[in-house]
Fold these 3 entries.
Entry 1:
Amino acid sequence: MLLQIPGVLSAEQVKQFRSRMDAVAWVDGNVTSGHQSAQAKFNEQLPEEGAEARELGEVILSALSRSALFFSAALPKQVFPPLFNRYREGMTFGNHVDGAIRTHGPTRTRIRTDLSATLFLAAPEEYDGGELLVEDNYGTHGVKLPAGHLVLYPSTSLHRVNPITRGARVASFFWIQSMVRDDAQRTLLFDMDMAILRLAKERPGDAALVSLTGVYHNLLRMWSEP
């Protein structure tokens, strides 16, 4: 499932993020690459051990904790501390699949990567190129969202970032270990949860709502690894 989550950060928060990030010295993005990714990756990254990455990442995690849509889609067990990258003119990231296990250097946090997330921190008109392209059974999907919006997709997906031809693409990226590791099961639970919310608005108190909610929780109980 590929899902857009709008408004994770406000316009004011994005402005504050960019101001802090512009004042920091960026490093080669391959400092966090595995062997495969290092062959295809050409970008810059905020030092993951720096105060900026840590403090801005905490703001993102706090915002995600308030997002019902994120929780429903990801069913997060653990979220990797957010990292930050920048693509300037000529930079790109070729086809790759994210590593199955990620370890955060400063905290030694280790997670299984079930879901990948990109939170856009530059407006689409600030740069040309830089689309995130995610492949699945239905083809290739291009993603270039407004600043403050997030896209969530399975970490098993082949994906890439198109070369930048003008300006700079700035984003945060991170991974989620879900309580439900199977993408098909997570998708089914998400669709059911959205249906329950619609039914609760349209027919509150309907007996079918109680029954459907029970089915949702019994499936979650069956499939989850809390």
Entry 2:
Amino acid sequence: DEIVSIESSLSAAELAEARGRYADAKWHYRRLIAHAQVINYEYEEWAQRLAKMYTLLGRHKEAGLVWLYLRFFEQARTSFEKGRAHLELAHCLALGKHWVAAARIFAQEERPVLSAIAYEEGKDHQKAYELWKLVGQDARLSASSYERALAQFNAGMAAAKLERSEATAAMARRHIVAAQRLLE
């Protein structure tokens, strides 16, 4: 009974797609990918077709999310760019290990923690340090000792990775000590 349902849904999706009824095709493809017990290549093909329907409907963010789920990073990136889905684009870039590009977008979108993490991954410890320092000074954290301590600790760890000198070593120690005091 379920096999017939899958076959009829696939036929209906393909027919709707061929007739240019993309919203109907999208509905059928979404129904198809709800069947997790199907063979992998069928599921992936249906998901790809679903992403195509979203694209044809001008729903680029949704298309990008499907592409990202499938780990088709280039298609996801293109879809997010067309859909002006900046945060999703940054996450896509990070998943594809394009750390500095992701960090820049996170910073533009006012996500300093995500930006600092991406800069760390991209080995730009100076920018990571500067961001962690700013996060630690954010007034929104004034009532939260734990989060301030975490920001101080991360600033200290980033400072420890900067070019080795007495000044950077002292700076790293100051942040680590500040984190410890906040936790105490």
Entry 3:
Amino acid sequence: SSPNLDVYGEAAILMDVVTGEILYSKNKDTRLYPASITKLMTALIAIENKKPTDIITMSKEAVYNIEPGSSHIGLDVGEQINLDQALHALLLASANESANAIGELCDGCIQDFAKHMTRRAKELGAKNTNFTNPHGLHDPNHYTTAYDMALIAREVIQQPYFQEIMQQKTYQIPPTNKTDEIRYLSQQHRLMNEQRDSRMFREDVIAGKTGFTNEAGNTLVTLA
């Protein structure tokens, strides 16, 4: 039986990652917009299919096919980084152009990558999920559920490489072929980064991802 919790969120789930047991749920199968927690699925596919040293060259579509004002790290068309750097940008700074570029690296184009994301989610048991992009910027056909996201999080946390990225609270991308400047990234999840919020920081939180769009509201995945 679920503990009597008063959860403000529209939907929520608490799952034991080892057993898959559901300890608490609220509207767990309600389809909602995920925003940037989508990027956990993007990371999973990249880690399963590509190598950290694989080189990414930023395309025009990857750079410009994101909403103005949405999160990015200022990558330019023709700029080259490796997948390891792109994944740090994705998971620490929630960089949307990096998400696009990772999708193109994996499947050639963003549309095919989105289909790959949806297919992989279904393999994990996600029955109420459809992805149309790798970043989670709003699309009415881009949705998932609390339960399905728990399944995705449960899978990605089993990847040692993902765990390694999550252990780094800050990260630097050195100068590239397009800039002389170092890009400084830091983990945005407040429970994971004491420099961001010393009062909310918790030692036992090992991974997670935040998200926000106007349509989705705030979204959150946390593993402890």
